[in-house]
């Protein structure tokens, strides 16, 4: 993410096509190391593409990703100093959840391929 952020900062600064050196300079200015492989990967994926079109495409893909959750976290009641473990024992037990097998999907299958590629 820091490589992408540095690239976007360079673009916002007026550099329409930041180079590896530009990205490294931005990252080093905040004390971060630039991973050469990640910089090269990003530059190869955005080469010849308009950043505003990439962002718009990414927004469309993220809009299709479900958000929110079906799991609600149960908040433990606050206990006073004198109650010790009594408050924890009085807390209702959360119902047990059956484990479900979930098949893992690649980022591209889930709509996270933000830099184009096959849809």
Report on this model:
By secondary structure, this protein is mainly α. It has a domain at 1-64: Orthogonal Bundle (Arc Repressor Mutant, subunit A). It contains five helices and no strands. It has helices at residues 2-12, 20-29, 36-46, 51-63, 86-90. α1 crosses α2. The longest helix has 13 residues, at 51-63. The radius of gyration is 23 Å and the shape is globular. The two termini are 23 Å apart. The mean pLDDT is 75. This is 60S acidic ribosomal protein P2. Residues 102-119 have a biased composition (Acidic residues). Pfam families: Ribosomal_60s (PF00428). P1 and P2 exist as dimers at the large ribosomal subunit. One of its GO terms (cellular component) is cytosolic large ribosomal subunit.
Count the strands?
0
Overall body shape: globular
- Succession of helices and strands: HHHHH
- In CATH, the topology of the domain at 1-64 is named Arc Repressor Mutant, subunit A
- CATH level-1 class of the domain at 1-64: Mainly Alpha
| Structural class computed from helices and strand pairing | mainly alpha
Please give the share of residues in helix: 40-55%
How many DSSP helices? 5
Question: First CA to last CA: what distance?
Answer: 23 Å
CATH architecture of the domain at 1-64: Orthogonal Bundle
Q: What does the largest sheet look like?
A: none
Average of pLDDT: 75
| Oligomerization status of the protein chains | single chain
Gyration radius (Cα, Å) is 23 Å
Low-confidence stretches: none
| Share in β-strands | under 5%
Keywords: Ribonucleoprotein, Ribosomal protein
Family: Belongs to the eukaryotic ribosomal protein P1/P2 family.
GO cellular component, one term: cytosolic large ribosomal subunit
Biased composition (Acidic residues): 102-119
């Amino acid at each position: 993410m820091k490589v992408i952020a540095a690239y976007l900062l360079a673009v916002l600064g007026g550099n329409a096509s930041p180079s590896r050196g530009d990205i490294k300079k931005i990252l080093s200015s905040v004390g971060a190391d630039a991973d050469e492989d990640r910089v090269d990967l990003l530059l190869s994926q955005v080469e010849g593409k308009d950043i505003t079109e990439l962002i718009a495409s990414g927004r469309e893909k993220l809009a299709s990703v479900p958000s929110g959750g079906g799991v609600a976290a149960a908040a433990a009641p606050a206990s006073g100093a004198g109650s010790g473990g009594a408050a924890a024992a009085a807390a209702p037990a959360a119902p047990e959840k059956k484990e479900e097998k979930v098949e893992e999907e690649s980022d591209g299958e889930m709509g996270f391929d933000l830099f184009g590629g096959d849809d």
